[in-house]
Design brief:
about 270 residues; Alpha-Beta Plaits; 2 domains
């Protein structure tokens, strides 16, 4: 929206310059056309040429601003609809891809010291759907998305990648800082519950993350975070696993971790 109003200000400024240019041309034309009719006639003609364009510009500019503002708001609404997940209100996959590309560009320009990509996956989500029903499952997804949005900054990217899986991209200075953020998210979501009125289920998530300090291919960083997510799932769920990605793309594993190769997606993650 801020970018749209910047466009409006720019266009309005150009409109004002155009009005001033037309007014000046009108005065010059009046001077040459009425020069031979006497000073009084010349003064009246120049006053008329000066005042009329300026006065007529007022209603035109008001109409112009109202219409342009409405158009910009409509376009912003269409953009939000195209880049937002309808159920949870966070970014959808294309919207998330757009923002993380901006994050990577800023990292390449040295605006950030590093970036963290987190994959957040709801634990036993199929069990919630089977026990409590899909409407309650939708409430669980909305609750997780709400907790993520409350815990992150407006400039951070939060997206639903599909099903019960979310992704977050945000600038941070170190792997330790990113791990602290991930743990805060995990603990915040762990306080949430959903119910169908008879049964209640407590929510939890497993998180995999990848920290990097140089621009990377998104698929490479996502794959590293996804392997770490599988590590969290395999080791009991409701936990966080984060590693760093080297400049040339290899992962730096923590000393206590062993490389994990995910062969196939597991049901009931």
């Amino acid at each position: 929206m801020a970018r749209s109003f910047q466009h409006i200000r720019t266009i309005f400024g150009e409109f004002v310059l155009l009005v001033l240019a037309v007014t000046l041309l009108s005065v010059v034309a009046a001077f040459h056309i009425f020069d031979g009719l006497g000073q009084a006639a010349l003064n009246r003609a120049m006053g008329f040429a000066l005042i009329v364009p300026l006065i007529s510009a007022v209603p035109y500019s008001i109409y112009f601003m109202v219409r342009l503002t409405g158009l910009m708001q409509h376009n912003d609404g269409l953009h939000r609809a195209a880049t937002t997940d309808r159920l949870t209100g966070v970014l959808n996959r294309p919207g998330f891809d757009t923002v993380i590309r901006r994050h990577m560009a800023a990292l390449g320009d040295h605006q950030y010291q590093g970036l963290m990509l987190l994959i957040v996956d709801a634990d036993h989500f199929k069990r919630i759907n089977d026990r409590l029903g899909h409407p309650v499952g939708d409430k669980a997804l909305k609750g997780i998305a709400g907790a993520l949005k409350r815990s992150m900054r407006g400039s951070d990217a939060i997206g639903r990648m599909g099903g019960e899986e979310f992704a977050i991209s945000f600038p941070c200075t170190s792997l330790e800082q990113g791990r602290a953020v991930a743990e805060r998210l995990r603990q915040s979501i762990g306080k949430l519950t959903v119910t169908d009125g008879k049964q209640t289920a407590r929510l939890s998530v497993s998180i995999g993350g990848a920290f990097y300090t140089t621009p990377q291919l998104f698929d490479r960083v996502y794959a590293a975070a996804d392997v770490n997510l599988y590590h969290s799932k395999r080791n009991g769920r409701n936990r966080t696993t984060i590693t760093s990605v080297a400049a040339h793309g290899r992962r730096y594993l923590q000393p206590e971790q062993k490389p994990v190769v995910r062969l196939a997606s597991q049901p009931g993650r």
